[in-house]
Amino acid sequence: MSSGMWTEKYRPQSLDDIVNQVETVSRFKTFVSEKNMPHLLLVGPAGIGKTTSILALARDLYGPSYRSFILELNASDERGIGVIRNKVKNFARTAAIASPVSFKILIMDEADHLTGDAQHALRRTMEIYTKTCRFCLLGNYSENIIDPIQSRCSVFRFSPLKESDLKGHIEYIAKKENLDIVEEGLDAIYQASNGDMRKSINLLQAAAANQKLIDDIAIYNLLGNVSPEAIKDMLNTALDGNFLESRELLRGLLINQGLAPEDIIRNIYREIMRHSTLSEQWKVKLSDTLGTIDYRLTQGSRAEIQLSTLLAHLSVVKDDMK
User: Fold this and answer.
1) For labelling, which of 33, 197, 220, 228 has a CA lying 20 to 30 Å from the CA of 262?
2) Which residues 6+ apart lie within 8 Å of 77 measured at CB?
3) Where are the alpha helices (DSSP H) in the chain?
4) What DSSP designation does 110 have?
5) What is the H or E stretch that residue 154 is in?
6) pTM over 0.90
7) Looking at per-residue confidence, does 220 or 235 come out higher?
8) Per-residue model confidence as pLDDT tens digits over 17-33
9) How far is residue 53's CA from residue 246's CA, in Å, rounded to a whole number?
10) Which class would CATH give 6-157?
11) Sorting pLDDT into bands at 50, 70 and 90, what band is 78?
C-alpha cells in the first residue's frame, strides 16, 4: 500500500475532474478559455473542493508549471497585517515571467480568519496590483469578510458534496489502493463526514492501515462511535414496550463501550427521524423530550438516569398509539 496523504494524492488535477460544483466549474472554464479572471471569493463548508477547484483552475491556466505562478497562504496561521505588507505585497507586485497570462494567482485559504486590519490592508493591495496578480480568497463564512473585499470579488458559494459523488470517489480510491469496501462501510464514511471529502479520505486511509476490508464496524471503531445498528436495536426494543431490556442495552453502550451520552442522544434523534412507523406527531413529541433531556445533560444531570427516562418515554409510545 502506498504511503503519504491520500487527500493530496487523489486530488483532481483538472477542472474536468471536479464534480458537484457544475456552475462554478463552467465559469472557471470560461476564465481559462479567455485567459483572464477577476478576484475570487469562494465560500462554503470544509472539505468540499474550494482549494482543489482553484488549483485545478491554475493548472489548466498555466500548465504543468503552474506552481511557479501561484502563492498559497493560510490565514489561520498568518493572519496579521504584517503578512499582507510583506509576503502578499512582495508576491503581488512582481510580474509573471514566461507565463501564458499576464498575472499570477495568490490563494489565501481561510481568509475569514484574517484580522480586520489585515483585511483593510488587503483591500488596497488588491486594487493596486490587480494587473499583475489575481487574489483568490477561500473561507467558510462570507460574513467574516469585510464588504469592501466582497465587492471586489466574484463570489462563488460551494455546496456540500452529493452522496453519490462522495461515495464514487471513495470507491475509486479504494480500488486504486486494493481495498475491499462494502456498502455499509461507504454509508458509515458518508454519515461520519457529512459531505466533507477530506475527512472521508482520511477516514478511509486510517481504516486501511488496520485492515483491507472496510466496513461500518471498522469506521465506527476508528471514530470511537456507536454503530447505528446498536442504536436501532435499543430504540426498537424500547418502542416494543420492553423498557428493562432496552435499559440493559443502554448500560452496555454507556459502561461497556464507554460512549458519550451526547453521541447516544444525537444518534437516537437521527434514528427517530428516520423511523418509518412513527407518525409525524410522535416525532414532534419525542423531539421535544430529546431536547429537554439533552439540556439536562448539559446542566450536569446523570446520563444514565436521563437516558433511561428517554427510553421510558419510548416504551409507552406503542400503547399510546393504539
Assistant:
1) 197
2) none
3) 6-9, 22-34, 50-62, 81-83, 89-93, 116-128, 147-151, 163-176, 183-193, 197-208, 216-223, 228-239, 243-251, 261-274, 280-298, 303-315, 317-320
4) T
5) strand 153-157
6) no
7) 235
8) 887 777 888 899 999 99
9) 48
10) alpha beta
11) low
Domain 228-320 belongs to what architecture?
A: Up-down Bundle (1.20)
Question: What pLDDT, on a 0 to 100 scale, did the predictor assign at position 30?
Answer: 93
CA distance 16 to 27: 12
Ranges of each domain in the chain: 6-157, 163-223, 228-320
Which amino acid, 132? Answer: T
Q: What is the pLDDT of residues 198-220, one digit of tens each?
A: 999 999 999 998 888 998 888 88
Q: What are the grid coordinates assigned to 96, written together?
A: 509573471
- The angle that helices 261-274 and 303-315 make with each other, rounded to 10 degrees, is 20
Residue 252's H or E segment, with its range, is none
Helix 197-208 vs helix 163-176: crossing angle, to nearest 10:
30
At 297, which amino acid appears? L
Bridge partners for 153 per DSSP: 39
The size of the chain, in residues, is 322
Out of 38-52, 73-87, 110-124, pick the least confident.
73-87
CATH topology of domain 163-223: Helicase, Ruva Protein; domain 3 (1.10.8)
